[in-house]
Specification:
5 helices; Tetrahydropterin Synthase, Chain A; alpha+beta; 2 domains; about 60% helix; cell projection; about 180 residues; single chain
Length: about 180
């Protein structure tokens, strides 16, 4: 009889101990997760704030002078938009492209404006020589943008002696 009483009391005594163990495990997991999150946030903040401090310090050249600061971008829209036609599988297709030139020096951009008819001619010839299928893909559009940038930079180098244009940007691109 004494054994039965002991067996009855043992499971009741073990039940609260198991419940406390689960609570301790849950609390431990929550604390570990909070520690991991706080370390992640702290590390991110540390590295990002370190980058801001590095950018804030002016770089010095060996002579003790500050390095030249990169000038703000200047954008020149080429208007009107370029419209080019294609003969694709027996059907007439069209492409309309609006372009902006990105430069850093207004004087170089003004020197290039004198040669705008040649620049527009080169771009029309470049656009009309493209394959319609390749232009329908994002990769084809990016390749065309890079070709246009190279063409404009080549013309600028030839005519003004400087690569005045940093990038050619498509502000509108329509294929029909």
């Amino acid at each position: 009889m004494a054994k039965k009483d002991i067996e009855k009391t043992l499971p009741d005594a073990a039940a609260p101990a198991a419940g406390k163990g689960k609570h301790k495990l849950i609390i431990l997991i929550v604390l570990v997760l909070l520690l991991a999150i706080s370390l992640s946030v702290g590390g991110t903040w540390f590295f990002l704030s370190k980058g801001d401090q590095d950018e804030a310090k002016p770089e010095t050249v060996s002579g003790g002078q500050a390095a030249p600061v990169k000038q703000a971008a200047i954008y020149e829209m080429l208007t009107p938009a370029f419209i080019v036609n294609f003969n694709y599988k027996g059907r007439q297709r069209y492409m309309q492209v609006s372009i902006a030139l990105m430069a850093r020096d207004q004087a170089l951009l003004d020197a290039l404006k004198v040669h705008m008819p040649v620049l527009r001619n080169n771009l029309v010839m470049l656009f009309s020589g493209q394959d319609f299928d390749s232009l329908a893909t994002p990769v084809g559009k990016e390749m065309l943008r890079q070709l246009a940038t190279a063409s404009v930079q080549e013309l600028a180098q030839k005519e003004t002696g400087n690569v005045a244009i940093e990038q050619v940007l498509f502000t509108n691109f329509v294929l029909q």
